[in-house]
Amino acid sequence: MFCFWWSLECGLSNWVRDGTMTRYLIRRFWQSVLVLFGISIIIFIILHLTGDPAVLLMPPDATQEDIDNFRKLMGFNDPLFVRWPPWEYLSPPWRFLTDTQYGRFFTGVVRGDFGNSFRHQQPALGLVMERMPATIELTMAAMAIAVSVAVPVGILSAVRRNTALDHAGMVLALLGQSMPVYWLGIMFILLFAVQWNLLPAFGAGSWKHLVLPAVTLGAFSMARIARLTRSSMLEVLGQEYVRTARAKGLSEVRLVLKHALKNAAIPVITVIGLDMGTLLGGAVITETIFAWPGVGRLAVQAISYRDYPLVQAAVFTLALIFVLINFLVDILYTYVDPRVAYK
Amino acid sequence: MSDASIAIGIGEAAAERENRWGLGRLLRELLRNKAALLGLVILVTIAAAAILARLVAPYDPLFQEVTQRLKPPGWTTPEGRISLLGTDHLGRDILSRLIFGARISLIIGLSAVAMAGTLGTLIGLVAGYRGGRIDDLCMRLTDTMLAMPFILLALAVIAVLGPSLRNIILVLGITSWVSYARVVRAEVLSLRTREFVSAAKALGGGGSRIVFRHLLPNVLTPVIVIATLEVARMIILESALSFLGLGVQPPTPTWGGMLADGRAYMTTSWWLATFPGLAIMLTVLGINLLGDWLRDVLDPRLQL
After folding, report:
1. In angstroms, how far is the first alpha carbon of chain B from the final one?
2. What is the largest CA-CA distance in chain B?
3. What is the pLDDT of residues B194-233, one digit of tens each?
4. Are A296 and A284 within 8 A, CB to CB?
C-alpha cells in the first residue's frame, strides 16, 4: 500500500514541479480532439460512398422528380468539402461552414445536432442518449465480471504455474478467446433460459436480465485479461525485487498481492481501457441477441432502416465515449507510472 | 564489384542462410509443441475440406427437400440419404453446408488479412521511416480507427455499398490495418538508427530501397505473427456480419448465416445453430494455437 501511495506522490509532485505532466495532458487532449475530428469525417463520408446519397435514402419506387427535390432539400447538390475554385473562400473563409456539406455536418456535430432521425422524427442524438444508460450498464457489468474472474484466475495460474489448475484455466481462456460472441449468447439462452429456465433470455429490467448478456459480452475480455495477467505476473515474479522480498521471508500471499500485483497490473490496465471500446462495439451483437434496449441495437435497427442521422449519432457517441475512457486511463496511468509522460 | 557491394552481398547471403536454418528450426520446434501441432492439424483439415469441398461434401449444399426439414443429426431419409449433422429448415444437409461454408470463411479471412497486412505494413514503414508530420498524421489515423465501434462502421459501410463478397473483404481489409501499422512503426523507429540502415544510406541507397530491401525484411516477423492471429478475428467478424444479415447473401452457405438461420429454431432444433458455431470455434482455436506458438518462437516480446 505504501508503495502505491508513494508512486501517486511521485506523480503529483512531478506534475507540480515541472510542466511535463501538464504538457503531456494538453498534448493528449489535442490528440483526442483530432481523433474526434477524424471520426466526424469518416461518418460523414460513409453516407457519400456511393456518390449519390439521395438515391440511397429515398424509397426505391421514388420518381426522379422526388429524388431531385429531396436532393435540393437536403443540400446534396453543394460541394462536399471544398467549393471550387477554392479562392472563393478568400473573402470570408468561414463560408466553408455553411456552403459545403461537410462544413454543415461539422457545425452540427459540434453543437450536438445530427439532424432528425428519419424513422422516429426526433433529434437523433436525443434518441441515442436515451439508450446510452442501458449500454453503459451492460458494458460496465461485463467489464466488472470479466475483471473479477480473470484477474484471480490469471494470478493463480501464474503462481501455480504448470499445474493442472494452470492448464485448466488457460485452456478455458483459449476457448473463450476462440468463441464468437453471438454463438456463446445463443448457447447461454439455449441452456439457461430454454433448458433450465433459470434466467430470462430477452429484454431488460431486473438484475436477472443483465446476467446472460453481461457474461456473454465479457467472455472475450475475460479470456484476454486472464492470459495477460498470467504472463505479466510471471514476468514480474521472475524479477529481482520479488526474490529479495521472498528472501526477506515475506509470506507468499503478501508477496504476490502486495508486491508483484501492482507492477503486473500496468499492462492489464491498458488492455482494460482498450477493451472498454471493444466492449462498447461488441455490445452491438450482444444487444441484438438479447434484445437489450441499448445504443447498439438501436444502431443496427437504424442501419436496416437506412436511418443515417441516427447511425451517425450512434457511431459518433460510442467513439466519443471510447476516446474519453482512454483519455482518463492515460491520466490514471501517469499517476501509476510517471515515466509515461516523458516518452 | 566494389568492396562495399561485396560486403552487402555477403551480408545478404548470410541472412538467407540464417533464414533457411530458421525454417528447419521452426519445423523441429513445431513437432515438439503439441498444442501448435494440434492447431496445425485442425487448420489443415479444415483447409483441405474447403478446397476439396466438391469431393468431400456428401451432398449438394443448396439441395432442398422440404419434407426432410429440421431432422436431427444421424437422420436417414427414406431414399437412404444420411445426414450426419441433421438438416436445416429447408431440408438442406448441414454437414455439406458447413464444408462449403468453410470456403467463404477462409477466402474472406485470408484476403482481408492480405489486404490489411499490406496496407498496415506500408503505413507503418512510411510513418516510422519518414517520421515528423507524416508520422503524426498516420498515428492520429490509427487512433481514429481504434476509436471507431468497428462492427457498426462495417455494417454501415456494407449497408451503403451492398453486401457482396468483394465489399466485405474490402471493408474488413481497409478497417483493420491498425495493429500492423502500430507494430511495424515501433519496430522501424528502433531499426532506423541501426548501423545497417546508416550504411545503406551512406552507400547512396534511396528511401524506397532502404525501406523495402533493408527495413521490410526485418519487420516481417511480427507482421506474420499478427497476420496469423488476425485471420481468426476476420473469420469471427465475417460471421458476425453474416449473423446480422449483412454478410455474403443466401443461398451461399456461410457459417454466420447458418447460425443466424438456426437462431429462429433454437428451442426446437438445437443442431442448426450449434454446429456452425462449433465450426467457427474450432477454426479460430486452431489459428490461435498456431499463432500463439508462432509468437512465442518468433517474437516473444510482442504483446497482443
Report:
1. 45
2. 81
3. 888 888 888 887 778 888 888 888 888 888 888 988 898 8
4. yes
Question: Buried (b) or exposed (e) across B178-212, using 16+ Cβ within 10 A?
Answer: bbbbbbbbebbeebeeeeebeebeeeebeeeebbe
Contacts of B43 in chain A (CB under 8 A): none
Q: Pick from B150, B152, B174 the residue to mutate for testing the A interface (most A CBs within 10 Å).
A: B152
For A41, the closest chain B residue by CA position comes to: B144
> B267 in contact with A at a CB cutoff of 8 Å?
yes
Chain A CB contacts of B243 under 8 Å are: 182, 285
* Torsion sign (Cα): A295, A124, A303, B171: negative
CB atoms within 10 A of CB B82: 12
Q: Which of A142, A323, A300 is nearest to A220 (CA)?
A: A142
Inter-chain Cβ pairs, chain A and chain B, closer than 8 A: 135
Q: Which residues pair with B93 in a beta bridge?
A: B87
**Predicted complex ipTM:** 0.76
**Distance spanning both ends of chain A, measured CA to CA:** 27
| Cβ B178 vs Cβ B146: under 8 Å | yes
Q: pTM for the complete prediction?
A: 0.81
Q: Please indicate if any CB of chain A lies within 8 Å of the CB of B236.
A: yes
What radius of gyration, in Å, describes the C-alpha atoms of chain A? Answer: 25
Count of helices and strands (H, E) across chain A: 15, 0
Residues 6+ apart with CB under 8 A from A141: A210, A214, A218
